[in-house]
Amino acid sequence: METPIRPAPASPITTSTTKPATIARSFLGSFCLVTFLFALWGFANDVTNPMVAAFKNILLISNFESSLVQFAFYGGYCLMAIPAALFIKRFTYKSGILMGLALYASGCLLFIPAGMMTAFWAFLIAYFIMTCGLSFLETSANPYILAMGDERTATRRLNFAQAFNPMGSITGMFVAQMAILANLNPMKEAQRRELQGLDPSALAAITEQDLSVIIGPYVTLGLVVLAAFVVFALAKLPITAGEDNNEICLIPTLKRLFRNKLYTEGVVAQAFYVGAQIMCWTFIIQYAMYELGMSAEKAQGYNIAAMAIFVSSRFICTYLLKYVTPGHLLMYLALGGAALVLGTMLLPGMPGLYCLVGVSACMSLMFPTIYGIALDGLGDDAKLGAAGLILAIGGGSLMPPIQGAIIDMDKFGFLSSTRASFILAFLCFVVIALYGYRAFAVHRPQSEHMR
User: Fold this and answer.
1) For 249, which of 205, 211, 239, 258 is 20 to 30 Å away at the CA?
2) Burial class of residue 3 in the structure, from the number of CB atoms within 10 Å of its CB (0-12 exposed, 13-18 middle, 19+ buried)
């Protein structure tokens, strides 16, 4: 996921009037290590999206069942966000990172027994454990990067670290396309079902071979993560300002957060945003395959194009924030996303696919914008508040299975079930647009200074 932006605590040693360095020399080694984590979770997110279509064809399951990959993947974020925040508060950022890497590696390596059992539920457990680790990593690395130096350079420092997240994402997409989808047996679902009746043992051999193709990159990833665990375990990471405060005031903090409408509405908006993002990126492949007859490998190329647009649009939207308040920009982006999703639904063929790819331009800055608006003015409560917004990533676990169930249905009038299923993404963007509007029109006194 994209990385949120919050100011770091003031450093007691930055009282001079000289311009502070973005990355202080004393933090340089630690900064490089922690920044590597941004690429690691970006890779995991985007090597996984195409697996929804892959598992459907390999295991002959429905779109609803195959989309449970996303339910398990983002369910780990949802379940572990608050426990991760409390764990880090009780111990240290380094402890949170080590726990995250251990869970991440364990989930990847569990692909080996899952493949031996040829059991879809075992793969789902592996994905879930893997993303419990990612939840720890995101909850640890984001504030740790912010705290590594002067608060005046915190945003620039985190933006620099963010640049490695899409690098990992694009790498994951290419690995999915070239190392997995390109090496799967090209036999279509109908042919596999026919072979299942004629020669079950032959189909079982093909299934085993295809699963081994999927397992290989995940096992390699697990070994890389294990190596990262060893490096972090041996590294002497600094204790940053405020990190030694272990006091946990959970109930009073939660009460204050629940009373803050700007925050609670932000958590809801974030859940809908992540749901929209995962649906648009996951089902690009299904759209291209079902509506245009493309292969999964070729369809993945459009997923890569969507990510390239996403990254490019981030720079443009960041520039626009000089002239537009975050709430206004969020509303405009959400309305643009809703319009493009309508194009995906109503325009058949390639125009609809182009609209679906174009949605990424509107999604580029939504996550950090919602994050920044929701946490504005929370002070110390932002530590637990941030975990609530990571928990909202769970929206990505709930909506893809619903969309998959719609795709499994018959046509909806003149719309195919695939095109009709994107009504869910349209509704998500409507909710986000409403939050953007309320951020500047209803909650203006609280968020106005974010301009």
Assistant:
1) 239
2) buried
CA distance 206 to 406: 29
Q: Which token pair is 1?
A: 């996921």
Calpha distance 239→93 (Å, rounded): 8
3-state helix/strand/coil string of 51-116: HHHHHHHHHCCCHHHHCHHHHHHHHHHHHHHHHHHHHHHHCCHHHHHHHHHHHHHHHHHCHHHHHH
Percentage of the chain modeled with pLDDT above 90: 25
Produce one character per residue of 300-331: b if its CB has 16 or more CB atoms within 10 Å, e if not: bbbbbbbbebbbebbeebeeebeeebbbbbbb
For residue 237, CA distances in Å to 30, 181, 433 come to: 6, 39, 41
pLDDT (tens digit per residue) in 93-137: 888 899 999 999 999 999 999 988 888 999 999 999 999 999 888
Reply yes or no on whether the pLDDT at 310 is more than 70. Answer: yes
**Could you tell me the two tokens for 192?**
């596999």
pLDDT, tens digit, 9 for 90 and up, residues 176-195: 888 888 888 888 888 888 88
pTM of the predicted protein model: 0.77
Nearest to 73 by CA among 422, 394, 390, 425: 394
Torsion angle of C-alpha atoms 90, 388, 47, 214, degrees rounded to 10: 70
Give the C-alpha separation, 241 to 375, whole Å. Answer: 20
Cα 82-84-90 angle, rounded to 5 deg? 105
